[in-house]
What does this fold into?
Amino acid sequence: MTSVPSKLYSDDVSLVVVLLDTNPFFWTASSSLSFSQFLSHVLAFVNSILLLNQLNQVVVIASGYNTCDYIYDSSSDASQLGSEDGRMPSLYSNLLQKLEEFMIKDEKLGKEQSQRAIKSSLLSGALSMALCYIQRVFRSGPLHPQPRILCLQGSPDGPEQYVAVMNSIFSAQRSMVPIDSCYVGAHNSAFLQQASYITAGVYVKPQHLDGLFQYLTTVFATDLHSRSFIQLPRPAGVDFRASLSYQIVHFPGVFAIKPQLIWATYVLYVCQYSAIITRSVQLVGQFLAKPNQILPQHQILRERLQKHNLSFKSICIELEDPL
It folds into this structure.
């Protein structure tokens, strides 16, 4: 099997997979930017990406509250060069039609399923779909565009998605796929900060949402080849804390909160710490394979953990009985 670094990239040709947040709970409560304004900025940005290079490809994945799905693929949409009414290109009309169908489907699923405590969008599912599409592109031939993922999110992070999101981040890092993030919510997203930092992407939280198109074109329209000599924004800080989900347990006369993902997130947090330093996730599988055995490859990780007053052996022993 051919390793990822030896793949041949077609210079500055890009494949941009856009993850579009359509969570109705966020956009209904948002006062600084409406969904229609947000969508107009995104459509203009998608059009600019296709205009920069005739070989560029754009894939749009809608991420709702209950589901996520592909709503646009420039490589399979052969009618994007035409126009329907002389004013709106078919690119926009086809994308908007599929987006409307998706939001109707997402709303129906919301009535059938139980509501979560935090109104977050399915970021983990959208990332998984994006990586699956990119892997198909990798296997299509030795010459392919340079892929990257752009997350356009506004919904808050969902703690129940932490493990799935971190798995997607490590997979993207392993495949050398940068994850760019543009967060339009009120507070910073720890998930997207970690995703962009670990995968060598760009994280931006626009201060003026009325100029969102300028942020998108000046920062996220640059291809990977141009980023080697262009100074892009760097985050002031990254929140590496693990997110936990809690379940409220009711007993007669007793009220308790039970942590659900303490062990899993703790192990992933240690693995994430190793991946950030070494830029490799090869130790993750070995770390979970034999919990009682300290392999030679763990020596470096053990020394770094000791600097933070953490015992590598005690962590391995805890893996036998997580909770």
About this structure: Residues 246-318 form one domain. The CA atoms of residues 248 and 257 lie 5 Å apart.
